[in-house]
Design a protein that fits this description.
mainly alpha; single chain
Length: 51
């Protein structure tokens, strides 16, 4: 079992190996930020319906 598998098994949502490639880091950050934005939008819509 490698580092990536151990990190994901421990609850990490993603993994970047060293040496870091800037394009990989940027892509990961974009995915995480877009996912967070979607989660927040879903939460606002759900809360708005319950009021």
């Amino acid at each position: 079992e490698g580092d990536r598998e151990r990190c994901l098994a421990a609850g990490a949502t993603d993994y970047l190996a060293k040496p870091l490639q800037i394009d990989d880091l940027v892509g990961l950050l974009q995915r995480l930020l877009e996912g967070g934005r979607k989660d927040l939008t879903d939460q606002v819509v759900t809360e708005g319906k319950s009021q």
